[in-house]
C-alpha cells in the first residue's frame, strides 16, 4: 500500500477504483466496503484507492468540543496496509478552503483531474462539498465514472458505524465494540516521562502519550500491550487521575505485569480487553494503592482465564 498527502498527480499514478470516507476505526462496515471495492476494481483492471481527510471534518467544525476519535492517521494507515486492504490511500488536508469547495468542483477537480476516478463506491448516506450539497444523485450523473452505493453492514442486527463504536466504548462495552471492529479496541502512542508516582507506590506505569484531546473511553481496564519486547498483560487507567492531580488533561497509564525494562521513547499499542470500573477519587494514597492492588488481581485473573480459553 502507498499513502500520498495532497494532490497525487506528481506521482504519475494510474486511474483507480475509489472510495471516500474518514474510516475512523476501520470497523467491519469499512472492511466489507474495501472488500467490495477490491472485487469491483479487479473486474475492471484497476487499483483500489481510499480518499480520507485529516483532520476529521467533525474535529475541524467543532474544535472546542471535538468528538472522540477512534484512531489516529498512523494507526489507520497501518491497519489498512495489513493484508493489502487497499493499494493507495490519498490523505487530503481538511481546512476552511476545502470545506467551502462546491460539490461540482470537487467532482471535477479532485475525483477526475487529481485522482482519475473510474469507479466510485460510497456509503449509502454519503454527502460532500460546501453545505453538504453533493450526494449520490450528483455523482451518479457524472458520465466519466461508475458510481455505486454500499448498503449498510449489519453486525448483530445493528448498523456498523464509527458512532456506534464510540457509544459502545463510552458505555464500557468493550465486547460490543470489538464485535463491531472485528478486533479489540486499541490506542497506540509513545511512552513518555511522567511524574513517576507509580514506582513509589509499588506500581510503576508506562505513561502513554494520548494522540487525542478526548479519548473514546475512560476508566480502569484489563489490557494487553504490544511492546518491542513482545505482548504483555497489564492493567491500565485512562482518565484524569483525580486523586493525585487537578489537571483536566486525560492520561493513559499502564502497569505491565512482571516487566522491569525501560520503554521510554518506545511506541506501544494498548489493546483494551475488559473494563473493571470507572475512575474514582480517593481520600489518600493508601486507599488508591489498595484499589490498584484489587484491580491488578482482577486483571491477572481475567488474563489467566483468557489464556486458558485460547489454549
From TrEMBL:
Keywords: ATP-binding, FAD, Flavoprotein, FMN, Kinase, Multifunctional enzyme, Nucleotide-binding, Nucleotidyltransferase, Transferase
Pathway(s): Cofactor biosynthesis; FAD biosynthesis; FAD from FMN: step 1/1; Cofactor biosynthesis; FMN biosynthesis; FMN from riboflavin (ATP route): step 1/1
EC category: transferase
E.C. number: 2.7.1.26, 2.7.7.2
InterPro entries: FAD_synthase, Riboflavin_kinase, Riboflavin_kinase_bac, Riboflavin_kinase_bac/euk, Riboflavin_kinase_dom_sf, Rossmann-like_a/b/a_fold
Superkingdom, taxonomy of origin: Bacteria
Substrates-to-products reaction catalysed: riboflavin + ATP = FMN + ADP + H(+); FMN + ATP + H(+) = FAD + diphosphate
Domain Riboflavin kinase: 180-304
Record has Transferase as a keyword: yes
Entry similarity comment: Belongs to the ribF family.
Summary of the function given for this chain in its UniProt record: Catalyzes the phosphorylation of riboflavin to FMN followed by the adenylation of FMN to FAD.
Protein name, as recorded: Riboflavin biosynthesis protein
Organism of origin: Vogesella fluminis
Amino acid at each position: 500500500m502507498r499513502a500520498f498527502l495532497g494532490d497525487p498527480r506528481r506521482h504519475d499514478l494510474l486511474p483507480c477504483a475509489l472510495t471516500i470516507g474518514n474510516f475512523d476505526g476501520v470497523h467491519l462496515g469499512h472492511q466489507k466496503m474495501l472488500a467490495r471495492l477490491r472485487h469491483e476494481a479487479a473486474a475492471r483492471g484497476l487499483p483500489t484507492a481510499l480518499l480520507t481527510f485529516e483532520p476529521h471534518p467533525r474535529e475541524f467544525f467543532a474544535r472546542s468540543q471535538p468528538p472522540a476519535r477512534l484512531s489516529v492517521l498512523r494507526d489507520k494507515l497501518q491497519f489498512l496496509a495489513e493484508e493489502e486492504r487497499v493499494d493507495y490511500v490519498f490523505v487530503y488536508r481538511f481546512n476552511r478552503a476545502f470545506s467551502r469547495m462546491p460539490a461540482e468542483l470537487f467532482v471535477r477537480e479532485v475525483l477526475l483531474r487529481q485522482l482519475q476516478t473510474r469507479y466510485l463506491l460510497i456509503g449509502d448516506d454519503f454527502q460532500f462539498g460546501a453545505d453538504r450539497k453533493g450526494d449520490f444523485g450528483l455523482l451518479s450523473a457524472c458520465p466519466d465514472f461508475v458510481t455505486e452505493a454500499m448498503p449498510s453492514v449489519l453486525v448483530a442486527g445493528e448498523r456498523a458505524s464509527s458512532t456506534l463504536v464510540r457509544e459502545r466504548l463510552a458505555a464500557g462495552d468493550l465486547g460490543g465494540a470489538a464485535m463491531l471492529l472485528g478486533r479489540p479496541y486499541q490506542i497506540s502512542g509513545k511512552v513518555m516521562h511522567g511524574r513517576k508516582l507509580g514506582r513509589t507506590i509499588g506500581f510503576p506505569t508506562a505513561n502513554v502519550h494520548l494522540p487525542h484531546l478526548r479519548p473514546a473511553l475512560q476508566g480502569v481496564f484489563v489490557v494487553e500491550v504490544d511492546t518491542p519486547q513482545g505482548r504483555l498483560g497489564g492493567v491500565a487507567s485512562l482518565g484524569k487521575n483525580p486523586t493525585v492531580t487537578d489537571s483536566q488533561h486525560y492520561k493513559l497509564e499502564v502497569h505491565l505485569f512482571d516487566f522491569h525494562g525501560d520503554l521510554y521513547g518506545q511506541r506501544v499499542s494498548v489493546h483494551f480487553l475488559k473494563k473493571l470500573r470507572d475512575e474514582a477519587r480517593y481520600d489518600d494514597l493508601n486507599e488508591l494503592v489498595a484499589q490498584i492492588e484489587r484491580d491488578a488481581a482482577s486483571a491477572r485473573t481475567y488474563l489467566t482465564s483468557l489464556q486458558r480459553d485460547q489454549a
